[in-house]
Each structure stands twice: as C-alpha cells, then as structure tokens.
Amino acid sequence: MGIEIKMPALSPTMEEGTLAKWLVKEGDEVKSGDILAEIETDKATMEFEAVDEGKIGQIMIAEGTEGVKVGTVIATMAGEGGDAVAAPTAAPAAAAPKTDEAPKKAESGTSKLASEAKATVADPALPEGTEYVKTTVREALRDAMAEEMRKDERVFVMGEEVAEYQGAYKVTQGLLDEFGAKRVIDTPITEYGFAGIGAGAAMGGLRPVIEFMTFNFAMQAIDHIINSAAKTNYMSGGQMRCPIVFRGPNGAASRVGAQHSQNYGPWYAAVPGLIVIAPYDAADAKGLLKAAIRSTDPVVFLENELLYGRSFDVPKVDDYVLPIGKARIMRPGKDVTLVSYSIGVGLALDAAETLAAEGIDAEVIDLRTLRPLDTATVLESLKKTNRLVVVEEGWPTCSIASEIAAVVMEKGFDDLDAPVLRVTNEDVPLPYAANLEKAALIDAARVVEAAKKVCYK
Amino acid sequence: MAKPTTPRAASAKAKAAAPAAAGADHNRPRPETPTDYKASKEELLEFYRQMVLIRRFEEKAGQLYGLGFIGGFCHLYIGQEAVAVGIQSALKPGKDSVITGYRDHGHMLAYGIDPKVIMAELTGREAGISRGKGGSMHMFSVEHKFFGGHGIVGAQVSLGAGLGFAHKYNNDGGVCVAYFGDGAANQGQVYESFNMAELWKLPIIFVIENNQYAMGTSVNRASSEDQLYRRGESFRIPGIQVDGMDVLAVRGATEEALKWVQEGNGPILLEMKTYRYRGHSMSDPAKYRSREEVQAMRDKSDPIEGVKKYLIEAGVSEDEIKVIDQDIRKVVAEAADFAETSPEPELAELYTDVLVEQY
User: Fold this and answer.
1) Chain A residues with CB inside 8 Å of B148's CB?
2) To the nearest whole angstrom, how far is the Cα of B162 from the nearest Cα of chain A?
3) Are A247 and A337 in the same domain?
4) What is the ipTM metric for this complex?
5) Is the confidence at residue A96, as pLDDT, over 90?
6) Is residue B69 predicted with pLDDT exceeding 90?
7) Burial class of residue A291 (count of CB atoms within 10 Å of its CB; 0-12, 13-18, 19+)
8) Separation CA B45–CA B39 (nearest Å)
9) Which residue of B129, B163, B195 is in closest CB contact with A200?
10) A235 and B133 in contact by Cβ < 8 A?
11) Which terminus of chain A is more exposed, N or C, with fewer CB under 10 A?
12) Is residue A224 flagged as an active site residue?
C-alpha cells in the first residue's frame, strides 16, 4: 500500500515552497534518514528526509516547481511490508517537522493577520507614469540596505546570522557576497554586547545597522538602545551623536508562544531621543529604511515577520527615500477614520472593504512612524469623519492606541461624535494553542465591529 | 591592597600563568612584562601638575557639593589620580579614543580640558561642557575623542569595544581605552565584549580601575576570581596587574599595552590596583571600611606623594613644587568662581538636542 509524501511545512510561517531538487528517482529504495529532496522556503533551502524504508513510487511534483502548497502530495512511496504507516519529515527536526497531517493544520490567529490589502491611493510624491515592481517586503529591506551600503562606506550590517547564513529570515540575503565580511558581520549570540558595540561604533563615526533576529531578543540589549543611543545627543548638549539603526521583526509571529510574540512599538515610542518606524508595505519598508540609515538620530525600525513574504508594488525610481514622521492616507473615506501601523494596516484596509459594502466609508491611515507621531494627519482626518478607531496588533495598555486616544481627547475633542475605540490584542501573553492564539489577536471582523459601533450602526 | 609594584605584579602574573601553561595555551604569545616608565624631569613635573590639579579640583567639587552648588551624584577621583594621568599621557588625543564610567572628572582633566567647563557642568551651567544637560556623570569631548562619561555600570565596556571596532573599520591606527571599575567587572556585557573584542582582534585596552570597593562591597565579597587581571584569560585576552598608585608603573604598563594592541594582537587587560579615599559618591557613610585602612593608604601609597619623591630625586626643589601647588590652587579657585557665577541654561535649552534632525 502506498504512502503519500506531502509537502512539509519547514517553518512556522511557511504556507508554500519551491521543490528545488529531487535527490531520489522513481524506483529508488530509500532508508530512514535518506534525503529525498531539497525544498526552498521563503527563509532557506532545507533538506527533506525520509523517516521510513521503502521504494519511491511516483514523483508527482517535478523539481523546480514553485508555489507548492504545504500538504500537497509530492510523491508516493511503497512502504516495506506494503502497509507501513510512514511519512517523511523535515530535517533538521527543530524546524517544526510536519507529518502527513497537513490538511488538518489548525487555523492560527496569525494567518488571519496577514492581508493582501494594498493602498488604494498611490504615493502623491511620485510622478504619474512611474513604473512599479512587485517586490516582497524582505527584498525591499535588503535593497534598502544594499543601496545605502553602496552609497556610504560607513554603513555596515551586524547581527546574528546576517552574513554566512544569509539572514535568519533571509533579509540580508546576498549582502555578504556584495560587501564582504568587513561590512556584513556575524556576531555571537550576545545581544547586549553587540548592541553596545554598534552604539559605540556609531559614536565613533560609523553608521551601523544592527539586526536583532527578533525584537524579543532586543530586551537583552534595551539598555544600549535607550541609555546609550537615545540619550547621548541630549546628555552631551548636542556634541555626541549616535546614528544607528536597530532593526528586525517585531510583533506576533505564527505559533511561537509568548516569549517570541510581542509588539515593542509602544515601548520604544515612549522614549525621547529615538525615532521609531514600523512600515506596512514593501515600498515603505524600502523608503523608510533608507531614510533611517541616513538619519543622524538613532532609529528603531520595527519589521514584521508575517509581512516579509508579502509582495507589494515598489516604485522603480533611482533613490526612493521617504520622509520620517509622516503618516499616509491609505484609503480616503468620510465616515470613520481607522488608524493603524505595521500589520494592522492590512486588516484596517480589509475592514474598510467590508464596511464599504455596508455603506460605511472608512478612511485608513498608516502611521508609518511611531515617534515622532504624525498627529496632524490623524486630527485632520478626524475633522472630516468625526469618528476614530485605532487598530493595533499589540497590547491595549499604554499602547500607541492609548496615545492616539489621548491626543484626540486633548486636541480633537470638539471633532468627536463618538468615543475613540481601540481594537488591540487581548491583554494576555500570547498563547500557543491555535484557537487561543486566534482569540488573542486582532482581526478585520473586530475592526468592522468597532467601526460600526462608533458610527452607531 | 594597592601594594604590588610593576615588577611584583609581573611575578604574580608569571605564577598565575603557570597553571594555564599546562593547557593548550602554552605557546600563546604574551605581552612583555612592563617596566616603570623612564620619565624626564619635565614629564614628571607635568604628571605632578595634572595629579595635583585633579586632587584639588575634586576637593573643590566636594566643597561645592556641600554648599549645594552641585547636585545628584558626584563621584570623586581622589586617590586614583595616577591611573588617569599615567594612561592618558601615553595616548594621542584626537587619534586614540577613551571612554569611562561615571567617575570621569579626572580623565577629562588629564586631557587638558579647561577645568572651568568641567566645573560648570558639575554646577549645571550653560557654559558646562554638556551645556549643563549632562552633569557629573555625562561629560564628553568628541574633539578629544573622549566619549564619556557613562552612568550605567559596564555599558562603557561594550561601547568602548564599538569604538575599537570603528578604529579597526576605518584603519586609522587608533586604540580605544575603556576604563571600568572592579564593580563593572562583574557585569555580563563586559564578557560579551571581551569575547567579540578578541574574536575580531579589536584595538582596545580594557582598564579595570580596581579601587577595591564597588560602592560598599569589597572585591573579595563580589568576585569569585578577585585577581581581576585574570578575567580575560578564558577569552585569550592577556592581563597585567599594575600598581595603580605609581604613575610611572601605570605609564610603563600602558606603553606595553599599546605596543601589544598596535601590533595587531587584539585587546589587552590592565588591572590598576588603586584606592579611592572618598566615599563612592557624596552621601557614602563608608561603614564598610575603617578609617585606619584609608589613613594607611594615604600615608604609605599616596600617588601624589610618590611623584613628589620622584621629583625630588630628579633634583626639583620643594620651592618649585610649591609654585606648582599655588598655581593649581589658583586655577581651581577660578574654575569654581566661574562655575558658581555663570548662568544656568536658558529654559529653551530644555527642548534642544533631543534629536539632531527635524522631522
């Protein structure tokens, strides 16, 4: 009896991959541990090994096939004794091996965070007829670093696995080849130490880009981000600078539990002396990271792992740099303002579509920069809509949402026809179980509900 | 105790190295055993002048603190003068970089930075070197490549490794000196920095100013390995213990350390055995040590008395020394007058320098 070999999920966020190469052919006898194929995910190329003995029956998916969904049958195998229950698993085992149960994959909370939504308004600063290129957020970030490194010898990238491994999330892919080991530097696992080395190098005149594998690990280094980088210019009376970018993924990833799932936007946005940027789409990722690297001030640049693989249009212009501290109207509307940033923007856009079908015309604002906060754009929109909902993939207490609510109370009170509502994650550490994770995270439905509430509909 | 002279420290090192020699590191190159620096009469006079300046400046700062002119934390360098003066005299300002913790007045004075702007920073005045916005613990002179002045214990060690990284990246021939205390020597990031500094052969001299007490905790109550010069060994960073009360021993060891680092061997660790006469900060009742201990150190090992002896041996008269003393008193009195009378920062300064750029 045949065994179906299915496309494995080789990372927590993998939904599909490329079957790069078959290392076996039909009729081959394989033993447990033999490598069957090489599978390329959005992060890395992984070897896929057999767990049981048997003979390869039919190869269903040819090598070189892209976009093979997790759980797709890629080959069949005749098991020893005819009916052995066997399934291939991924190597290394640590990379969340997926057995033949893929179709039963639980719907996690993060899968509903990911939206394909695009802005309905083009960047007005670009001339008409500008060509756009489909680019993933991951590539856009890499392109931004590469362009700035070409322009400025002082720029270098340092972090865990940024060089030879090509980036834990492949964001720094190709940089080592182009710029060499002097400028693309692998560190030991030592966040506090290399954040300090980066800050010191910035004080010494260089332009470091420090990658944290995720911002969860930056808590080990937060002293240097705040006490060393953010306060230096002020404490020295403007004498000593610290032009550094701390960047990496932030916020909930998929099913990685409480210690690897937190949005630090509000933490860093609370600190004078820092610039805090949290882009949504690929064009902003590129334009704002370039601006961050050029800034003379220390910048915390918060990316989102779930967005890395999403493609967006990026304008094909020579030097695409966006202004820091300017929010963007992603979708104009007149009935209610939805304010968000990072991954929340996609949900707000999705919600706006749903609301439109119900006759509510929502305006969606992407804050893009969390410090300094572009409150003028928010207040201007409120003047028009008189209703406001903040959408934030993060905890509610002392959040960006709280801050927006306070600003609106202080400066836009007369424009309010309803209380400001916050749509945020639940006020709990992020749970692992798929159903609980789903319940803890924001989704478009909750945004729709809140928007209707402030519209009294 | 700050007893070992340089040659004795070297013998201690030889003994310490013996067990390690049994391992695979037997043939690892080591820096030469340093010898006392042979200072000219002019150099000795300058060492004396700088050390007396630091002592009188700090005494005056203590007085101004008592009068309410200086607030917050104020950590005096009295007793440790030979360390900053011995090391700084070996460096090239503007080429080599320096970073230290919050006990930073002495290092700045050893650069020849105007005592007026330092004292005015202590009193929080507009004319202060950080425009009154930094205070005692946060002073910088980028012009001299003096990078502070840092209030978080141990942070300057990682930052210093970053300065060393920049020297190497720019290939500018400079060396960073990162000073820290025996207390900071127990911070984890120090060892993260040791690891990367040696791994990447960064041009940096780590200087532990071991003044025997981390606030109120003596070294042997806080350190499982209290011979702090050995703290780099597991990272393959050689360490030398130095009599930090003898400016010529300090300078001699610095010369050797500079040679080691400049030859591309990577970092080196100097443990300066020294002593602070005053409390940790201004409000320290000093219950953790006896008056007799402090007095014995002043009587037997005072670094300024030590230089005075060298001067007299070099044929300098008591009268010449007195002229320096009087001159310094005048300089310090003027600095204090300036710091007391110059205006506080304009209120608008509250909002400046938060960010460099406008967004």
Assistant:
1) 232, 235-236, 240
2) 4
3) no
4) 0.90
5) no
6) yes
7) buried
8) 10
9) B163
10) yes
11) N
12) no
